[in-house]
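WARN  no MSA supplied for this record, continuing single-sequence
INFO  ligand: calcium ion
INFO  echoing inputs
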Amino acid sequence: MRKNNFILFTALVGALLLFSCKKDDGGVDTIPPRDRGEEAIEAEADIITYLETHFYNYEEFNSPPEGFDYTIRFDTIAGDNANKTPLMEQVVSKSVQDRIDEDVFYDLYILKARQGEGKSPNFPDLAVNSYTGITIRNNEVFDASISPVKFDLTQIINGLQEAMIEFNGADPELTEQNPDGTITFKDFGVGAAFIPSGLGYFSNPPLGAGIQLYDQLIFTFKLYEVEIGDQDEDGVVSTLEDLNDNGIEEDDDTDGDGVPNYIDGDDDGDGVPTSVEVELDDDGNIIFMDSDNDGIPNYLDSDS
Ligand SMILES: [Ca+2]
Ligand SMILES: [Ca+2]
Ligand SMILES: [Ca+2]
Ligand SMILES: [Ca+2]
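INFO  complex generated
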């Protein structure tokens, strides 16, 4: 039951585009997007208000009832639930840099309902998960998949990418293949990410998805399995293509061709594919050859 994976469209691609409106004379007026730093402040205020006024079913997670599905459910702190512990006291926060304006930093709030017992993904890995996305503005689901789907973490909004890497997948020793083809996962990670617009879609939400400009988003997810990412299949796993080691895959581009190394099959732009300029040893470990001994491996060295 795979629904529209709107969040698979990375927000960064369109983030620099201006949106436009028609003028009477048929011309097009462009409205510049809002200032990212100012928007970050408003986004954080929206998110904190939500976290202070809502709780999740932590009692079920603390002592799971028979057949509990380990799904996070939020509700308002009011009436019978007036004494519940607010999310604000249960989340952790992570400082995340804006991908466009390097002076802007966000506190990304993350709820760790359950850490998970399996492997943890790195930022350019692939993650098998199920998820639900809502907007803080109207609490309505804009995208969800109950069945496990595989995300390339480099292709989803940065807020969700940054949150998922804080979790672990299911215990692989307890994973069972069922006769009907489905898989049962146990001890998987369960979490939620409270995502400011700047780490979501900002001024460029996917059309028809029910997301408005500058919406703050909440994703709840269950993380099941992790695969190591090598997006360009050049033999250099994508964690190693993060040359400046800042946990961001988009800002490493050795040959300056506008295609970051993790999706560039010829990283130094010398016409020889990276897959030819590196070798694997008998154990499958990558060997970075350096023919001219200048300290720069061949795949990053345009003159060798
Ligand atoms: Ca980087
Ligand atoms: Ca590459
Ligand atoms: Ca090359
Ligand atoms: Ca060299």
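The pocket of calcium ion (ligand 4) is lined by residues 290, 292, 294, 296, 298, 301, 304 (CB under 6 Å).
INFO  checksum written, moving to next record
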